[in-house]
Amino acid sequence: xxGPALSAPAESRSGLDVRSxxxxxxxxxxxxxxxxxxxPGGAGPSDDGHLLVDGLKTxxxxxxxxxxxxRDGRLVRTGPDGGVTDLGVDVDTVxxxxxxxxxxxxxxxxxxxxxxxxxxxxxxxxxxxCVRYGTDDDAADRCRFCAIExxxxxxxxxxxxxxxxxxxxxxxxxxxxxVRQMVMTTGTSNGRDRGARHLARCTAAVRAxxxxxxxxxxCEPPAPDDLAALQALKDAGADAIGIHVESLxxxxxxxxxxxxxxxxxxxxxxxxxxxxxxxxxxxxSTYLIVGLGEDPDExxxxxxxxxxxxVYPFVVPYRPxxxxxxxxxxxxxxxxALLADVTARVxxxxxxxxxxxxxxxxxxAACGACSALSAAGG
Length: 378
What we know:
By secondary structure, the chain is of the alpha/beta class. The chain has helices at 15-25, 110-113, 150-153, 163-177, 196-209, 228-236, 250-256, 265-279, 296-308, 325-329, 336-353, 364-367, and strands spanning 6-7, 38-39, 48-53, 56-60, 68-71, 74-78, 84-93, 115-117, 121-125, 181-185, 215-218, 240-242, 284-290, 311-317.
């Protein structure tokens, strides 16, 4: 049965406005339709389907209540009157990668070791446990938006990925599916390096197997007396690093990331500055999450400070993810207009500084899928 006729593409709203609303409200999937590549839960603030929107890698929440849906390769919106408007945006799905069908030499499914993000990014959490996460009965230190151990409990991944496993999977992903960059993050360990040295071993193994594959690593700031852990990451062959603070407002940090908030912002700045020295400007990034309650003007001002220091502020919306503390508490996603405003202002600052995510060798900003910054020229 054919759906309602489409009206002409909407011209009155900017592309950033539309992208921001879809990023927050997600897309509904019609009965019988599929989004082959999805990333449910996991580390960080993203739970979504992977698409190409006007050729740009994009992650969108799958939300049955969303007025947005995919139809015949286009993004459309259903209005209150039932009318359907073509938003003038081409959308392609990403096929399930061939490397998912393989198993490592020690019997682990490749899909449990690393996953495809967008159409050409290989991503993995090398240690799927975190000292901040705690238990369901004692989650006082847990980041409220994070579901890092939920995917472990579901069997979607393994607790620790070995360097050999990651090298094997990376080689196959490049050969079979044209992967062009890799992102390796980690749950935080009790060690003073916060898990950086295992990341370094994994990075060295991957670069030995596929020397031309750019790699970004992500971890918490190491202890101030162990900044050598950052040098170890660089020496292992990492091209870029993400040290994610999520908010520069201490009150917000205490509410949303109580465990990480015990690490003072001064320690983040020390790690960022050392990382810029090692990796260079625009090769160091951090997440800033819109929708945690931080004053938007202060968020943009903080982004400006980061940019001045050579750190790329990767602006993303808070998304309610099932299995997280924030989802259980009913914390809503941000207003799309707020997301569009903050994104536009940060993108303007990035353009003025000559810093673009697309110019980075690897990482979240190089991929750009979880943020609208790339669509705004940032």
